[in-house]
Design a protein that fits this description.
By secondary structure, the chain is mainly alpha-helical. Helices cover 67% and strands 4% of the residues. The longest helix is centred in the middle third of the chain and has 24 residues.
Length: 168
């Protein structure tokens, strides 16, 4: 994955910088299509569609930053994991496998996930920084912690780590 960006004159003559992650996704889509890699092609198309949907959501269309695209891809990966668990629970192994394959492709574009030790260290740092004590202070800790873990740990996992640390 080689980051690169392109620029063009947008509305009112302002220079607009296109997200390098979006460029990478488009280039990888072309490569996957040429290689006739159905899973990658399908997954990257879905990811680009989710990004496009997010770009036109709201009052005005806008260009997403790489950080915003990472959030979209994280959300899509989580959907795949949950769908896989649902299919596996229903005894539909083939569909579960397909969802996991898509999740694996999406995770190639996401930052490396934090290990439990790294997450614990960040949680402790955020608790110290916020001066929080007890379970009721979870919001304070999450406010400090979320920017530090953005895209590198799932929200539920972060909340669970904070809850455990504050409880005991």
């Amino acid at each position: 994955m080689v980051p690169h960006s392109s620029c063009w004159r947008g509305e009112h003559g302002k220079m607009v910088v296109m997200s390098s992650l979006k460029d990478t996704l488009k280039a990888d889509l072309t490569t996957a299509m040429k290689a006739r890699d159905e899973i990658r092609t399908r997954t990257i198309r879905m990811a680009l569609a989710a990004v496009s949907t997010e770009e036109v959501a709201g009052k005005a269309a806008r260009q997403l930053s790489d950080d915003e695209i990472v959030k979209v891809l994280t959300r899509e990966a989580k959907k795949r994991r949950e769908a896989s668990e649902a299919f596996a629970g229903a005894g539909r192994a083939e569909q579960a496998r397909a969802e996991l394959d898509e999740q694996a492709v999406l995770e190639e574009y996401l930052p490396a996930q934090l290990s439990d030790e790294e997450l614990d260290a960040l949680v402790q740092e955020a608790i110290t920084e916020s001066g929080a004590e007890g379970p009721k202070a979870m919001g304070q800790v999450m406010k400090v912690l979320n920017p530090k873990v953005a895209g590198r740990a799932e929200g539920g996992r972060v909340a669970q780590a904070v809850r455990a640390r504050l409880a005991g």
